[in-house]
Write a structure and sequence with these properties.
This protein is α/β, with parallel strands linked by helices. The chain has 20 helices and 16 strands. A hairpin with a 4-residue loop joins strand 14 and strand 15. It binds 2',3'-dideoxycytidine 5'-triphosphate (DCT) and magnesium ion. The site of 2',3'-dideoxycytidine 5'-triphosphate has 13 residues, from helix 16 and helix 19.
């Protein structure tokens, strides 16, 4: 096993340049993805630290050897908060406010419980903050503070005006590459950094502009410095030029192709979609065949005009079978985006608890009209008594249908409406394949479903993280559960859910985190 060095844990920017990232430190399955632990060796000693790290990893905790950007919880024994803050400063960590600095008793309580326990009462408190008015150390974890930016996306208003696109695009490439390599910690670190920069109401022109903001780790700042100085980052360029990244990005852009299939195709030596299509021995799912068949249309993204046309078709068709049904555009288009990879709709029928038939009727109707190029209808799997799920990114239990719809071009009569999308060019096909997701929620879960399906993903992640860590509540697309009061909190609107969580209401177009 690699021995861990106690000092010099933060690679300087120079060291990072051209340095390969170490392989994932643990071969144990990580069960708790929301936290990443770093144990300080100072006063604890190397052997005890190694022992504790190994034990925590066995129990499903993510423990980093080094104080990387993904670390969220610092665990220490026999050190005061001031000593740790000084130590962090010596490690050139300027944003120590992003960590929870915790006594070792928190970790032992977690190990005993076999899961992360609430860390609040184990937090080390800095005396320096109150003694020295001009303290060089930032306050611990700015949660809401009016003068500081929250670490939670659900406490930031993020519109589509991104003044820092050159940085956020670069971080997105790195995050995606880590996602492909299944390194969730680093992936999340770059996604969080991008999310904070998207929120900033100004363009960053020097690294000191981001001082004090959450999630601005050393790696993040190093890349920003490169982009500021040279207009580009060698690390990002290396990813963009790597054959693995390019191939996996290409393969995962096919509807129905996930990471596992992409990696398999890469290992089989495929580098282009043509090569995949030409291999007659390759077993493809029905979804993948449809994805390849309509690839060009699907990869060209859905425009706002196309989304509006799809909205008309969906509304007309749903209300044909259930006149009182509500059809709401969700996903990126609800947040004001001008283009998206699909169009998401939430359907509910006021006063009705279950509408199992509706989706079937609509799909059958579209099939008769020749509008369906592909569909996969998944029945509801919701069990009433289940607590909100801890899964962060898992699908919910609603009945839903993933479709490829044949959207007509030009002016088309549909029911009582005339839809008009970019007119067909002569001699070319007069339709475009677009991806549509339909979700049906019971009326009493509508607000939760709407909040969950409106995104962005980062916003959703942080809503759940906030509920868990700040409110001892569990939020998912179905419900909100208060663990202290041991009851479900009802809500008829998104505003009520924010209110239950003690959050200011954030409009959909401010959720582009
Ligand atoms: N969602 C989520 N977590 C996931 C997948 C989806 O919270 N793992 C939510 C957030 C957005 C919504 O569902 C719709 O998903 P997408 O269509 O993938 O996202 P989008 O924001 O609509 O993006 P795009 O414009 O590319 O469709
Ligand atoms: Mg979408």
């Amino acid at each position: 096993m690699n021995m861990i060095r106690a000092t010099g844990l933060i690679p300087t920017r120079k060291k990072w340049k051209g340095m390969q990232l170490s392989a994932p430190v643990s071969s144990y399955k990580i069960q708790f993805n929301d936290i990443t632990i770093f144990i300080v060796e100072k006063k604890m000693g190397m052997s005890r630290r190694t022992f504790l790290m190994d034990l925590a990893r066995r129990k499903g905790f993510r423990v980093e050897n080094e104080l990387s950007d993904s670390v969220t919880h610092i665990v220490t024994e026999n050190n005061s908060c001031t000593e740790i803050l000084k130590w962090l400063q010596a490690q050139k960590v300027e944003d120590s406010a992003r960590f929870r600095i915790l006594d070792i008793s928190w970790l032992t309580a977690c190990l005993e419980a076999g899961r992360p326990v609430d860390s609040e009462k184990y937090r080390l408190v800095s005396k320096m903050d109150s003694v020295e008015s001009n303290s060089p150390y930032p306050p611990e974890l700015p949660v809401l503070g009016t003068d500081s930016v929250s670490q939670y996306a659900c406490q930031r208003r993020t519109t589509l005006n991104n003044y820092n696109k050159k940085f956020t695009d670069a971080f997105e490439v790195l995050a995606e590459n880590y996602e492909f390599r299944e390194d969730e910690g680093h992936c999340l670190a770059f996604r969080r950094a991008a999310s904070v920069l998207k929120f900033l109401p100004f363009a960053v022109v020097r690294v000191s502009d981001v001082e004090g903001l959450p999630w601005m780790g050393e790696q993040v700042k190093g890349i920003m410095e490169d982009i500021i100085e040279d207009g580009e980052s060698p690390r990002v360029n290396a990813v963009l030029n790597s054959e693995n990244y390019r191939s996996i990005k290409l393969f995962t852009s096919v509807f129905g192709v996930g990471l596992k299939t992409s990696e398999k195709w890469y290992r089989m030596g495929f580098r282009t979609l043509e090569e995949v299509k030409c291999d007659k021995n390759l077993k493809l799912t029905r979804m993948q065949r449809a994805g390849l068949l309509h690839y060009e249309d699907l990869v060209s993204c859905v425009s706002k005009a196309e989304a509006d046309a799809a909205s008309l078709i969906v509304k007309e068709s749903v209300q044909r079978f259930s006149p009182s049904a509500l059809v709401t555009l969700t996903g990126g288009f609800r947040r004001g985006k001008k283009a998206g990879h699909d169009v998401d709709f939430l359907i509910t029928v006021p006063g009705s608890s279950q509408e199992d038939e509706l989706l079937h009727l609509v799909i059958d109707f579209w099939k008769k009209q020749g509008l369906v190029l592909y569909y996969d209808l998944i029945e509801s799997t919701f069990e009433k008594k289940k607590l909100p799920s801890k899964k962060v990114d898992g699908l919910d239990n609603f009945q839903k249908c993933f479709l490829i719809l044949k959207l007509p071009k030009g002016k088309v009569d549909f029911g009582n409406s005339v839809i008009s999308v970019a007119s067909a060019e002569e001699g070319k096909k007069d339709w475009k394949a677009i991806r549509v997701d339909l979700v049906v929620s019971p009326f009493d879960q509508y607000a939760f479903a709407l909040l969950g399906w409106s995104g962005s993903r980062q916003f959703e992640r942080d809503l759940r993280r906030y509920a868990t860590h700040e409110k001892k509540m569990m939020l998912d697309n179905h419900a909100l559960y208060d663990k202290t009061k041991k009851l479900f909190l009802k809500a008829a609107s998104e505003e009520e859910i924010f209110a239950h969580l003690g959050l200011d209401y954030i409009e959909p177009w401010e959720r582009n985190a």
